[in-house]
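If you are new to this repository, start here. Below is one unmodified record pulled from the training split, so you can see the exact layout before writing a loader.
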Amino acid sequence: MKWNNDRWWKSYKPGDKLKGGNAKQKLVSVVIPEEQGPSKLPSVAEILKLKGDVTRGKAVAGRCISCHVIGDLGLDVGPNLTGFGKRFPADVVARAIVEPSAEISLGFEGQHLRTHQDKLDIMGVVLADGDPVIIRSMGGITQSIPASDLKSRQPMKRSLMLSADQLGLTAQDVADVVEYLRSSEE
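And here is the target side for that same chain:
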């Protein structure tokens, strides 16, 4: 007997199974914690007095690529950092790391969505504002939420990016990352 894959698949009716909701995406909650209290780091001016090291800065910047692209590496959640250090003065680069909510890049304003069905909180950048609403969160998690499942949607009053304190960076780490981004050929 000759096996006919096409007929077997047709008899299984995969299109009906997919339409029936078996392929429905499970949404996950993504909450970006607020910073607790003032920064423990010295001022940006004091940080910039430290001598940064490009090699150490590149290693520390490995924490950034879960949300930012640097050269050929990283995820496209926050602004692309390739050439960022060459386009802006050192104090702007350092402040963006230490106080990410001080200035949020256009197009990267965070939204806080809450769903009806699972009562999930999802924070991220809205990529598509139709039905479904598509949102991308930290780590590149991209989710599609049916408009009918949205209970609320609020603009965030802070950055989606964690501060240097929340990332566990020291003043020297910040100086090193600034030096790396300012000298990077990427």
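Two things worth knowing about this chain: Residues 41-104+160-186 form a domain with the Cytochrome Bc1 Complex; Chain D, domain 2 fold (CATH 1.10.760.10). Strands lie at 69-70, 73-74, 111-115, 121-129, 133-136, 142-145, 150-155.
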